[in-house]
Amino acid sequence: MTNHPHAGEEARRIAEAGTVLRTQVGSGVHGTALAGQDDRDEMGVCLEPEGFVTGLARVRTPGGRLVPFEQYEFHTAWERPLGLRERSGPGDLDVVVYGARKWARLALAGNPTVLLPLWVPDAEVVAVTDAGGELRREAGRFASRAAGRRFLGYLRAQRQVLTGQRRPGAARRARSASPTDHAPKPAAHALRLGLQGLELLRTGRVTLPVPEPELSELRAVRRGERTLAQVLARLDEFEADLERECRTADLPEGADRAWVDGWLHRSYERFWEHAA
Fold first, then answer.
1. Which pLDDT belongs to residue 168?
2. Which stretches of the chain are DSSP H helices?
3. pTM across the whole model
């Protein structure tokens, strides 16, 4: 087994036994995947046994350390000879299952990726319980101006990849496989964040997959059919629009923390009662 701190057998058992929601995320659910070029990403939320929440229980990592349980990860690429150094490629499966408290902290902060399971189409739901279904029905409670600012921050980070200000090595690798003058995948990712951030601020939700005609444009960017200048000009528009909407959107400043706290309390209590 790979020596990753979140990949242990005990962590896997906890994640699988307590899963309340697991869905596809990533380019497959956005609609931007290109045939033969993408892996499959899945994200889940799980409830841990009582001792990991109210006590000091720990899980043992493949390396033998005892650590708190926060998440479980599995990547089929790790099964190949280079292990953790293997990069996921076409056909690979990448799974992350967060403990419910960690997922809630990230979701309340407006993390764009962590929020996706709330809005994916039913066909992309791998597993869901009553507790997970409640999360999806109440997804609007996570919409806030603070979440809009996180989308804006992620957009800016991807823009820095394109301009070489952030992770220039990754950008060079992505450009080397494309005839265009920029890294097509980060470019499409940045533009998608702009589209979805604006939708969240204006409507309180995110539509998945990305609707037309925007989806066709994102796929054209991923195929390298737009120049860096064209992409950056569109990102400038998105940044300006997001900055304005973050100030004026008809949304609360932050997510509904009281509701999320209540969901955690009753979901854990029901889970532990059933497990007793």
1. 47
2. 9-18, 27-30, 51-54, 100-108, 112-115, 130-137, 145-163, 168-176, 184-203, 214-222, 228-248, 257-275
3. 0.90
